[in-house]
Amino acid sequence: MAFGRKERWYWCQEHERAEARKGACARDKRLGPYESKEAAESWQERFEERAAAAEAHDEEWAEAGLDDGDKGDTDIDTEG
Predict the structure, then answer these.
(1) Which domain holds residue 22?
(2) Angular region, 4: left φ>0, alpha ψ -120 to 50, beta rest
(3) Residues 30, 19: contact at Cβ < 8 Å?
(4) I need a surface site. Which of 1, 14, 28, 31 has the fewest CB within 10 A?
């Protein structure tokens, strides 16, 4: 570990394991960086928690009538 720098960890999607930066698989096969091995190993749990929170937020907007059903649509005139 370099002086003054924390070790970074990644989740290798190919090998399904946490890997330290040094010796980690190619960038296109990994997620991260994470601050610890434990954080890299629990990436999916955090992802699912965030996805559930986003879904709940979307449902609240829909119930309040704030969702017009055009997800991704904008009010920008691109024809003019």
Answers:
(1) 9-63
(2) left
(3) yes
(4) 28
User: Per-residue pLDDT tens for 24-48?
Assistant: 999 999 999 999 999 999 999 999 9
Tell if the pTM clears 0.85, that is, is over it.
no
In a domain, 74, yes or no: no
Token digits of residue 2: 């370099």
* Residue 31 CB contacts under 8 Å (≥ 6 apart), including other chains: 10, 11, 13, 40, 43
Cis peptide before 33 (omega within 30 of 0): yes
Q: Is residue 38 part of a domain?
A: yes
Q: What does the alpha-carbon distance between residue 39 and residue 80 come to, in Å, rounded to a whole number?
A: 48
Q: Evaluate whether residue 46 is within a structural domain.
A: yes
Question: What is the residue-averaged pLDDT of the chain?
Answer: 85
